[in-house]
Amino acid sequence: MISELVQEARAGHEIAWNTLYRKFYPGLYSIALRMYGDIPSARDAVQETFVIAYLKLPQLKEEATFAGWLKKILIHYIYRDLKRKQKSTSLDALPPKNDGWWEDELNSKLDLLSTQSRLYSALAHLPEVLQSTMLLRYFSAFHAYEQIASILGVPVGTIRSRLNQAKLKLTTQWHSQPEVSMHIFQESELWNEFYSTTYSGLHQHEDYKNEFINHLQKDVQIILSGQEMLAGNCFFDRKVSEDKQVGSWLKTSNVTSCGDISILEADHFNSPEHPFHCPSQSVAVLYRNKNKVSKMYLYTSPQ
User: Fold this and answer.
1) CATH number at residue 170
2) For 303, how many CA atoms within 13 A lie in the half-sphere containing its CB?
3) Range of the domain at 224
4) So where does this one cross the membrane (predicted)?
5) How far apart are CA 50 and CA 24, in angstroms?
6) Which pLDDT value is given to residue 182?
7) Label partner for 209 (CA 20 to 30 A): which of 34, 82, 111, 233?
8) 207, 287: one domain
9) Total-model pTM
């Protein structure tokens, strides 16, 4: 459907372009608001993104990559805009003293972006087992030692040991980074947006369900609660069909990504006729290999 709309927009069909605008505006605005922290700047950035995308639409090689291409334009624009604002602020052009907080606010946001980028870069260099443990502990709602141990299928003592190792390696990596790279942080934001859309749409949109399932390797290894192991992406297709038959569905509550790992937290909803079909919450830890999920831990909260 998206590919067809992009093709029509390329041919000059205004209705197709307006449809793409309405579809992707909310997700782009969410990213922009998170990065800027203020509504006017976020709105301006999204508007500029659509203008740039429209002008460069003939350069897009694959229509199916439109969503990711659009997000890259937005993130690139925001970083350039923030850097431009920082450079354009001079002592001669400073606002009156009582309005000086504008400069402080801008600098604090730039410092925050720099710190976030540095942190994500350091995290991405950790071994997978340490990285996933850190993400669960400090970036998810499933942060208790016992919960992390249940999710990853290891003793609590192992979790404590991994966290200690991770902190030591993270400190070393933090101080050894000569420059701050925005690449890993930008990439993490794109993965967050991808999963927020496709995982939340598993039960409501056939296109999103297919996109998520195709994102899994055909022989993906899935480790369920209790450490039951399955293989194959057909598990999700079958599970979603079962859920839809009884009126159950899920919605992502939080997504955290770094490097080749993502943590997907979800709230589950059941119909009055089948109130216990699904647990109230779940968390999935995804491990990617060449942009495809090769392994997944899928943990559901006790009923």
Assistant:
1) 3.10.450.50
2) 5
3) 119-303
4) none
5) 10
6) 67
7) 34
8) yes
9) 0.65
